[in-house]
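Usage

Read records sequentially. Each one opens with the input sequence:
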Amino acid sequence: MRYGTLSRDISTLRIKRVATSTSKIPLPSWHLGIPLALSLLGIVLLYSTTYTGTIMPSTRVLFQVVWLILGLIAYRVVSRLHIGTRPRSVHLFFWPIWALLISTLVIGFAVHGSSRWLKLGPVQVQPSEFAKVFAVFLIAYFFSDYTKGEELKRFLSAGGIIFALAIPIFQQPDMGTAVVFIVLFLTIIAVKPLPNRYLFAILIGLTLIALPGWIALKDYQKERIISFFQPGKDPLGSGYHVNQSKIAIGSGGLYGKGFLHGTQTQGQFIPVQAADFIFATLGEEWGFVGVISALSLYLVFFLKGFSLARRVKSEYCRLIILGIISVLFFQMFINIGMTIGITPVTGLPLPFLSYGGSSMLTVWTFCGMLASLDRFNR
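and closes with the structure output:
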């Protein structure tokens, strides 16, 4: 009896140890788990958009997997850095970033009429994506830890540098990314306790440059904006992208047509569907359930980001977090909006889902920054 009792005690102890060790397995953090789930979903959607009838993935899928791996490495490296300490000379990085943006206008690689990429051997990089990371640091640097009376100086300095970054991006032309920098600037101005006259000054300035900006737009950009306000004017021309995208999303129904069974997707009716219109593939093949699931992941990610912004003690860290959230949210809103016809077509990628190496590295660098601030805040 004693041996039986001892055997049962040992068995119970083993079960408790297994249960205890299992309960201590750490779950991925929100700034790792949610982006990873969305990135893997993007690779699945990319596989569908490039499917040719064979099980072997396309070159684009393989490249995207490589970029995801590099993004995870960037996340790991950046998350181990202590980026919460406000530097003294972040503005000095303006010149190399600005030189890269100017170089895209001179020796850039043109795709679909836009010179946004630089060729580094077999790899194409988009400097304007990496400039977003610098812009977030820059805005946080200028609008944190200043004494009373320096508001105007910081406002003009930050506004001048953001404007200088946006101009060459606008000339590439890449109107969507240029607007991202302006939205980032407006977001920080809105959350900072600055006098309203600064916000009014920006709005007046944007109004004054609206007409010259319209004249500087390319013809196809003007057609996209006109088709946004008049979607039925040119259904086979400037409005073709959006019309096909709306057909794909609407035909998905509740549960979608199924993986690799989207008629619009497999028929290649949607131009640039791997990058700009990847959300249409999600709506067609995964339906309303798939769309809501993806949007729920984005919602949790942004809510976690705002929660982290409230917890950090440093104003510099808080502005970095709000800057990251504003950039990613704006891109998500504009990209999804253009697929359903509520925003103009701008070519902004959908964070984590759209095809593109530079975009993948940038968003994962942002996640690494959030991880660093979260870890050091604890």
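Summary fields computed downstream for this record:
- Strands lie at 109-111, 114-120, 123-125.
- The longest helix spans residues 278-311.
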